Amino acid sequence: MEQEESSPIELKPVKRSYVVLMVLGWTLASAVIITYFFFSTFFPEFSPIDPGDAGLAFLVVPGFCGFVTGAMLSEFDEKVAVYGSFILTGMAIGLIFVVLFLPLITGTVQDMTQLGSTDQERQSVVLSSIFLLPISLIGSIAGKAFGEVYLPSEEEKVSRELLIKDTKRWHDMLQSYIREKIRKDEEEVKEPKEEPEEED
Predict the structure, then answer these.
(1) Are residue 24 and residue 115 in the same domain, yes or no?
(2) Contacts of 175 (CB under 8 A, 6+ apart)
(3) C or N terminus of the chain, fewer CB within 10 Å?
(4) Residue 139 sits in the same domain as residue 46
(5) What letter does residue 114 receive in the DSSP assignment?
(6) Whole-model pTM?
(7) CA distances (Å), origin 39, targets 114, 184, 186, 194
């Protein structure tokens, strides 16, 4: 039985500029969200929305933003999602420092106490930002796994369809070969065997 060759799967190469823009876009958006919740938690008097529990800013928001970032970058390699979590953490920490010390840097105020923030509060923000990396990294890995299953890229969809077609074709070929083999064996069993002639 002749075997048909499966059609090769050709995927379009992804441009590096597209990858960079996607990573920077989603990480920057997530970093802004994390920074807002951090600032709102420690300085609720300056925020229109009070997040309430501090655990929301320290655990839930970084994990959720990392999850969304990993899911949106699931069409790329695993290392892209990991790098994205590092970039996300760096951007978030940078924005947190800018938000905290920008009035002092620009000379708007001479002392940070004029804004109602104490040294202990600022130290708490700095220490809490250290935990952004592991939380966002875990969320990014989970989002990557979720995106690969439920949010496949167009190339991934095409490759899966071709794989399903090839698997079905090979399955049909194997079934037809087995049926043909069984039929031949049954025919051989039904054919009467020739008995040797006895010599006088």
Answers:
(1) yes
(2) none
(3) C
(4) yes
(5) G
(6) 0.69
(7) 16, 79, 81, 97
